[in-house]
Amino acid sequence: MVSEPAAGGGAYAAAFEAQHRREFGFTFAERPVLIDDIRVRGTGLSPPAPAAPTAAASGALPPPTSVGRTYFESGWEETPSYSLQSLAPGNVLEGPALLLDDISTVVVEPNCTATVTATGHLEILVRPRKGARGETRTGPEAQRGAEAAPAEGAPSPSGDADPVQLSLYSHRFMGIAEQMGRTLQRTSVSTNIKERLDFSCALFDASGGLVANAPHIPVHLGAMQDAVQLQQRRWEGDIHAGDVFLSNCPHTAGGSHLPDLTVITPAFLPGDGEAPAFWVASRGHHADIGGATPGSMPPFSHSLSEEGARIVGFRLVSRGVLQEEGVRSILAKSRNLADNLSDLKAQVAANEMGLRLLASLAAESSLAAVRSYMHHIQANAEATVRAMLRAFAARAGLGANGVCTAADQLDDGSEIRLAVTIDAAAGSATFDFSGTSPQSYSNLNAPRAVTYSAVIYSLRALCDTDMPLNQGCLAPVTFVLPEGCLLNPGETAAVVGGNVLTSQRVVDVVLKAFGACAASQGCMNNLTFGDETYGYYETIAGGAGAGPDWDGRSGVHTHMTNTRITDPEVLERRYPVVLRTFSLRAHSGGGGAHRGGDGVVREIEFLRPTDVSILSERRAVPPYGLAGGEPGVRGQNLLLPAGGGAGPTVSLGGKAFVRVEAGARLRVLSPGGGGYGAPAEAYSGGSRAK
User: Fold this and answer.
1) Among 157, 606, 649, 673, which one is least packed by beta carbons within 10 Å?
2) Is residue 506 a contact partner of residue 524, using CB atoms and an 8 Å limit?
3) In the prediction, which pLDDT does 143 show?
4) What is the pLDDT of residue 142?
């Protein structure tokens, strides 16, 4: 709703455009404004409420209800506590003191005085605080003194990080990313983003380095730094306030796979020159952007061109004006262009929220302090990973330059091989993927940025310190990724499966090298269906791997995915399907001293002829157990005949595209997680799933 402009004159259209730009970060050029309704509001002043009758004034304080020691900035102080109801007008209390009633506590700090007024209210006189040397600081002189010599614990634009401020800034930055995510969810329209939460939001420093993120989708977050930095280089010298950039190319723009559209916004602050002070970005999985099959996740793609629209870099918003016609042209083959446009606008709005909150934080604590703590947070992550590497090398007895290795095999026989060489003195490591299979003719190729994402996630998971995932995690790491291998493919390679399947297996291999836990389901069980009018996409949960002192969780999204499943009511209301079964797959987790988590059974009936695609792994090679634990049960994808008829149940294998009749059902049985440790005794919980 737009209120009457303060300047008067009925300039509602200009006020609406200003408010729209402030909230969403753009306006529509030459688009008429529809007036939906008109409201009239009257305002006025009410007379002040009469003062409540109070007891007669008294200067005598009642005895305190208790006296205890309380810690203030000046140290421990003997502090009396009083009941608020026992105080009378005229009572004066010198701090420190605690004043309590049924619903609140008032703290009167040292050097402050509380007085009960004639109407029974509290009036607290706050005197100037004494500085560290005993001098009194007040007014402008105190402000200049604080700038010259910050008090202990205050944000410092340079030097060593204060631990308290480091924690506060870490949570502030993550909080900004979370607010971006809430804005994106609230303003989006697609099931994928609004219901499944298949999106990520993050903050970046002036160089494009990842600073902090909300706990969204790990496979997005590690790759988004590349996306931001590549757009910086692409548009260098031509970046302006009000610009927003769009990309998705996995090979040349830091993308994960083509359905993940990344919206990137530079942050310009007043008085900070012509270069962006920060960057914010949001990445969302769009349910369809063209390509060979509905949902843009073709199970048998052999080149990137079969997987949808490819965007290396496009100026989505130019100086505050949305370039809608350009987007329509790029995404012309999408089966649901309206949802694409709405969700892109929501991503721009989410970024705008991030810009406002970053600007507010800089105004609150100074731009220098914000920049300094962005650096401190990255340095803290680096130090934490170095400490973890040293501790692991010592625990595993690796010596000065020890090596730990691991390998795993995809269902098509492709291998991922890893040798981690740890320099214990430096706390650094080389992740060498030499020996990994060549680029695949299938779509299981993982772009380099996705490989980095899998490693940065694994390193963060191996650290037991609470910190944002950021670029500092990779500072101690050197990569050896042979050109043209499965994890560093050529520019035309199909990658839609590499992002959602191979990335999971890279995590399994890294965690196996460190002996951290057994394999999780190693898959996202990607299901897409639709026709020429719509596309739907979901990932299906499975079992998590067990560890040295925990059982694996059942029926969860693991590692590189962190999405929700669509609520049954939403699924059935929006799409021509019925959800027949969604349950745990009993006994599908691997046995061991600690059991792997169970997978799930998900069965969907299609109410009209539909194109269905399934892209999954661990249908041939089971999730491995560790330290004597048993493997999890492999997954299955089954097509049941329409109406429960006499036709055969057909196994679709791990990757399939099929056109189904009305009444046909797809049953997905996702893999269980591997077990950890030799079982203490034979498993007696019933026969395992087959």
Assistant:
1) 649
2) no
3) 36
4) 38
CA distance between the termini of the chain? 59
Which residue shows structure tokens 């979901």? 538
Largest CA-CA distance found in the chain, in angstroms, rounded: 94
Predicted pLDDT of residue 535: 86
Those residues whose C-beta lies under 8 Å from the C-beta of residue 23, and which sit 6 or more positions away, are 349, 352
Backbone φ, ψ for residue 148 (5° rounding): -75, -35
Q: Provide the Cα torsion 461, 467, 472, 476; round to 10°.
A: -50
In the structure encoding, which two tokens stand for residue 430, read together? Answer: 């080389």
What is the amino acid identity at position 415? E
3-state secondary structure 277-332: CEEEEEEEECCCCCCCCCCCCCCCCCEHHHHCCCCCCEEEEECCEECHHHHHHHCC
Which pLDDT belongs to residue 7? 63
Say which residue the tokens 């997954």 belong to. 635
Report the b/e string of 602-625 with b at 16+ CB within 10 A. Answer: bbbbbeeebbbbbbbbbbebbbbb
In 3D space, the residue among 526, 556, 520 whose CA is nearest the CA of residue 632 turns out to be: 520
Q: Which helix (H) or strand (E) holds 421?
A: strand 415-423
Q: Which residues in the chain show pLDDT less than 50?
A: 131-154, 682-688, 690
Which pLDDT belongs to residue 497? 94
With H, G, I as helix, E, B as strand and everything else as coil, classify residue 471.
Answer: helix
What pLDDT was estimated at residue 53?
Answer: 57
Report the alpha-carbon distance of residue 290 to residue 287 in Å, rounded.
Answer: 10
Single-letter residue type at 571 = L
Q: Distance between CA 56 and CA 53 in Å, rounded? A: 9
Q: How far is CA 535 from CA 192, 495, 531, in A?
A: 10, 19, 7
Nearest to 526 by CA among 201, 229, 299: 299
pLDDT, tens digit, for every residue of 14-57?
788 777 777 776 766 666 777 877 888 777 877 776 666 555 56
Cα(53)–Cα(502) distance, integer angstroms:
74
Q: CA dist 521 to 353, 518, 552, 625, Å?
A: 36, 10, 10, 11
How many angstroms separate the CA atoms of 349 and 322, rounded? 12
Distance CA 561, CA 217 (A): 5
261 and 308 in contact (C-beta within 8 Å)?
no
CA–CA gap between residue 450 and residue 412 (Å, rounded): 20
What is the rounded CA–CA span in Å between residue 250 and residue 310? 9
3-state secondary structure of 30: coil
Asked if residue 491 lies in contact with residue 443, where contact means CB atoms within 8 angstroms, the answer is no
Classified as helix, coil or strand, 346 is: helix
